[in-house]
Amino acid sequence: MILEMKVPSPGESIKEVEIATWLVKDGDYVEKDQAIAEVDSDKATLELPAEASGVITLKAEEGDAVAVGAIVCLIDTGAAKPSGAAPVAAAAPVAEAPKAEVKVEAPKAAPAAPSYAAGTPSPAARKILDEKNIAPETIVGTGKAGRITKEDAINAVPSMGTPTGGSRGVERTKLSMLRRKVSERLVAAKNDTAMLTTFNEVNMTPINNLRNEYKDAFKAKHGGVSLGYMSFFTKAVTRALQLYPDVNSMMDGDYKVAYDFCDISIAVSGPKGLMVPVVRNAENLTFRGVEAEIKRLALRARDGQITVDDMTGGTFTITNGGVFGSMLSTPIINPPQSGILGMHNIIERPIAVNGKVEIHPMMYVALSYDHRIIDGRESVGFLVAVKEALENPVELLCDNNPKKAFEL
Q1: Residue 230 near residue 294 (C-beta atoms within 8 A)
Q2: Which of 18, 109, 298, 331 is 20 to 30 A distant from 289 in Cα terms?
Q3: Phi and psi angles of residue 291, each rounded to the nearest 5 degrees, phi first
């Protein structure tokens, strides 16, 4: 019996996928539920499992765009399973063949006989090389017996001191559908929004003190979930969004769409590129709830198990370039959202505190926002509210009771 495998729908709005990688070869025997391909949609990379056991016939090439519901391969369910991997082992001696070729070609490497003309420019070529300030010994002549011709001199480019002889390989690789979609969205965000960025800095001493005091007890109490920076930033953001709701809204044609909930998109780096899974109703989560959900989503992204539903929606985004060492950046809005907060690395710097110079761990933060819907007062006020919460976390984020806030 021949089973026709069709492309399943990865999500409601997705009409086609792209075959990123075949994990099997044409004619291979596959087991039911075995991953046979990785397919890219414009939102995620997913594995395609075999629907039955049998011999597979591929009906699409890597890089092909295949419509949802189209036949992607055939599986002959009546084919007998191979008894073993002997054919693969038998093919191994073929790898010995190149050794003979290397031995045969070795004597051919004899240098060409020297010639008085090799490397010598013609009069016209010498004039051009002098004008370009290029030494003749750096040019390989293409004329008779290696002579440097006028054309060689015209085509010569000054080295500008760059050493020669190194590798200059070029590789051309097609971007995945996910990466292409991300590129389109980022360009659209720059072209279609009135994007502006405002900056501030945060003294991280209070948060560091809280983490140092409670992180061990927090991890022991909550089954290995760590008390990281992201829970503080997420809670500071949800508080600020409630104070400045315009930042938690977005444009829809001539309308403003406002939300009374905070679905926070968290940018994470996965093996397939940037992923932005969503922490739903973050305003209702505790520190433990935020950290556990971010950990769950990050692991799914790392293992390639992230789904379209995990990344759909979101009313505001947080991205942390600091984990890669970024000191300052202007993050790009994640459309159709109107705002994104960029975190950066923490560096000890001297600052003025009560008229005295002190050294504190400082972080620059950046808010990029759509000026069509968010005014300067709201954007600056929002970022100041984030700063205030992070610099006074006991009162503003823990309600003056860290043990209760951390569920200890």
Answers
A1: yes
A2: 331
A3: -65, -40
Question: CA 301, CA 44: separation in Å to the nearest integer?
Answer: 10
Q: Does 64 qualify as catalytic in the annotation?
A: no
> Phi/psi of residue 335, each to 5°?
-65, 150
Q: Say what the pTM is.
A: 0.67
Min mean pLDDT across 10-14, 311-315, 342-346 is at 10-14
185 or 233: which leads in pLDDT? 233
> Which tens digit of pLDDT belongs to each residue from 185-199?
778 888 888 999 999
Is 360 an annotated catalytic residue? no
The pLDDT of 128-142, averaged and rounded, is 84
| Chain segment 350-400, per-residue pLDDT in tens | 999 999 999 999 999 999 999 999 999 999 999 999 999 999 999 999 999
Residues of the chain with CATH 3.30.559.10: 194-405
Any idea which residue has 């006991």 for tokens? Answer: 394
CB atoms within 10 A of CB 179: 16
CA distance 383 to 396: 15
Q: What is the radius of gyration, based on Cα positions, of the chain?
A: 30
- The tokens for 156 are 């010569």
Active-site residue among 33, 130, 303, 375?
375
Helix or strand or coil: residue 121?
strand
Phi first, then psi: give them for residue 71, nearest 5 degrees.
-75, 125
Whole-angstrom Cα distance, residue 148 to residue 245? 72
Architecture of the domain spanning 2-76: Beta Barrel (2.40)
Strand partners, 401: none
Asked: is 194-405 a CATH 3.40.190.10 domain? The reply is no
Pinpoint the residues of the chain covered by CATH 4.10.320.10: 123-155
How many whole angstroms separate alpha carbon 279 and alpha carbon 264?
A: 5
The C-alpha atoms of residue 155 and residue 125 are separated, in whole angstroms, by 10
> Does pLDDT of 112 surpass 50?
no
Give the pairing type, strands 264-266 and 316-320.
parallel
Looking at per-residue pLDDT, the higher value among 164 and 271 belongs to: 271
Asked if pLDDT for residue 57 goes beyond 60, the answer is yes
Cβ neighbours of 125 (radius 10 Å): 23
What mean pLDDT, rounded, does the chain reach? 85
Q: How far is C-alpha 10 from the chain's CA centre?
A: 20
Q: Could you tell me the fold of the domain covering 123-155?
A: Dihydrolipoamide Transferase (4.10.320)
Q: What's the whole-number mean pLDDT along residues 44-67?
A: 87
